[in-house]
Specification:
Distance between the termini: 29 Å
Shape: globular
Number of strands: 20
Order of helices and strands: EEEEEEEEEEEEEEEEEEEE
Strand content: over 45%
Number of helices: 0
Mean pLDDT: 80
Radius of gyration: 19 Å
Amino acid sequence: VFPQIAGARLADVAGDERGFVAVGSILDAQGIVQRGLVMVSRDGLDWQIADVPGLEQVDVLDVAVGPDGFVIVGERSPGPLLRFAALAVSTDGVTWETPELPDPNQLAYTFRIDRADDRFVVIGTDLSLAGGAFELTSPDGRTWSSAAQPYQRRVVPTGAGWLGIGPMTTWTTLDGAPFEASAVPPDDRGRPAHEAETALAFPSGTLPVGAVEEPCGPLSSGCGLESAAWWSADAKAWAAVPRGQPGWPFRYPEVAMSD
């Protein structure tokens, strides 16, 4: 049984042996976020709305799970030009609390949360005059620390550390030290990298996917963005994945792995 909620938009789901948590937002008729939405299920079949405090005007974007429970992350928007990070944590997905952040008044777009290497990592964009990205880390979802980082769309655990992915021609890696930028080459047709959307980590290497820039011109098949992928064994030296046929004129929004 799945609750039917007018204006509901789901963004992500995470789960373990304790159950599942799905997150999203409730929008009005004009598409404006009214409040965050969190639903919980023990078996993935029967779902109930969780009572999470402080989700008014919050767009809940992502959820991650670890040994200490679930953490949701989103953006609180009390005004047209105001964006603040919003987090909540729960041991079981039913009872939630709001952790104290290092700077609750930091203007920021919040993108993603992931869990690996015994910690949660939240990545977002700093909207202050300093610019760039911000990173929040926590061992348990309740105590957080922050650090400035190069701009990234999200961070992905690789098993040996973290991979930060974002726009243009650089990705960054994290192995317990500060992020280190790495140049990403053009694809096999010489088109420059534009932006990565997400990535998958394998024991043998890492596969980010995104888009390259298709130039406009008389000899061009089109212009704009075209899907692309890269590969690296160490998340530092990258090679474009050769294309067997013309690509689709859009970015890869997501990538998944199967047996």
